[in-house]
């Protein structure tokens, strides 16, 4: 009978910590992005795509001064135009990029660790 492979504690710690980082990343995107306008918008990929589609649709129809209703994370409505949607889209994209970069940086730091203690010191 072959011996069972022994789990490497460092590899296990890295996998666990990466799982924690991923969960924190998902929680951050679900919490939403606080816009400069002062309200919070959902910041998932689908949410960003929806705002982008609204902006693009207004651009396509040439209705630069038209306002549409945009609902924030607290279900409050805001009248926004193309300029507002362009700003909101940029803020949501920047937020998403920053969150992904933060996640990737921590994953890379975890990969570089040589001890379990060093791995466990890396938090969101």
Helix and strand composition category: mainly alpha
- Name the shape in a single word: elongated
> What portion of residues is helical?
55-70%
Q: Any low-confidence stretches, pLDDT <50, length ≥5? A: none
Q: What gap, in angstroms, lies between the N and C termini?
A: 43 Å
In DSSP terms (H or I, runs of 4 or more residues), the helix count works out at: 4
The helix/strand series, from N terminus to C terminus, equals HEEHEEHH
- Gyration radius from CA atoms, angstroms: 21 Å
Neighbour order of strands in the largest sheet: 1-2
Strand runs, count: 4
Average pLDDT: 92
Amount of beta strand? 5-15%
Largest sheet: 2 strands, antiparallel
Give a description of the structure.
It is a single chain. The protein has 124 residues and is mostly helical. Helix content is 61%, strand content 10%. It contains four helices and four strands. It has a two-stranded antiparallel sheet with strand order 1-2. It has a two-stranded antiparallel ribbon with strand order 3-4. A hairpin with a 5-residue loop joins strand 1 (33-34) and strand 2. Helix 2 (45-61) packs antiparallel against helix 3 (82-112). The longest helix is centred in the last third of the chain and has 31 residues, at 82-112. It is elongated. It starts with 8 loop residues before the first helix and ends with a helix. The mean pLDDT is 92.
């Amino acid at each position: 009978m072959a011996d069972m492979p022994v789990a490497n504690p460092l590899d296990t710690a890295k996998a666990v910590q990466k799982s924690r980082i991923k969960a924190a990343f998902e929680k951050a995107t679900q919490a939403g992005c606080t816009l400069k306008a002062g309200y919070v918008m959902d910041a998932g990929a689908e949410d960003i795509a929806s705002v982008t589609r609204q902006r693009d649709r207004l651009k396509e129809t040439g209705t630069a001064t038209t306002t549409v209703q945009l609902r924030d994370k607290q279900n409050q409505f805001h009248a926004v135009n193309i300029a507002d949607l362009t700003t909101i889209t940029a803020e949501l994209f920047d937020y998403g990029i920053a969150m992904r970069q933060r996640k990737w940086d921590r994953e890379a730091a975890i990969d570089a660790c040589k001890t379990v203690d060093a791995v466990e010191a890396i938090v969101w």
